[in-house]
Write a structure and sequence with these properties.
This protein has about 150 residues and is mostly helical. Helix content is about 70%, strand content about 0%. It is flat and about 45 Å long.
Length: about 150
């Protein structure tokens, strides 16, 4: 796993600066002090470089190769996949907000969290962060369901 991480992070460290350079060919913003179409890709590419550097450095510092694998057919993975599929089936009916809180709660249970405090607080905090970022900051409307 260590060698694969070093190779992939090196590949990202080579590709991301080239893609960043390509963003300079994007058209400029139509209004003053409003970011243009290159703004978000540049942020994503910059973050990809930072995370690739972190992965590269941490794997170069490791002494031995470890087996960090997850079995695809383990019961936890199957339950998580079924839960995510259920999320996409549910949210047209009960809405994005309700299904997000419900699915996050179920995924916490699948991950092994049993403390009532964590199961009550974490989905609400996660929803509040997602809602604040997308609805209040970016002004992106959430899809509502047929029933809620």
């Amino acid at each position: 796993m260590r060698v694969a991480n070093i190779i992939l992070s090196s590949l990202f460290l080579i590709i991301c600066p080239y893609l960043y350079f390509l963003t300079y060919s994007f058209p400029p913003s139509l209004r003053a002090r409003i970011p243009g179409p290159a703004y978000w890709p540049r942020i994503v590419l910059f973050m990809m470089v930072i995370f690739s550097l972190i992965i590269f450095i941490s794997n170069v510092r490791k002494r031995q190769d470890t087996k960090d694998t997850i079995e695809f057919y383990s019961p936890v993975v199957i339950k998580a996949i079924i839960t995510i599929v259920a999320f996409f089936i549910m949210f047209p009916f009960i809405g994005y907000i309700n299904s997000l809180i419900f699915i996050f709660f179920i995924l916490l249970l699948i991950a092994g969290f049993r403390t009532a405090k964590i199961l009550a607080i974490l989905p609400i905090v996660f929803f509040t962060i997602i809602y604040s970022f997308f609805k209040l900051l970016l002004k992106v409307p959430f899809p509502t369901g047929n029933y809620f």
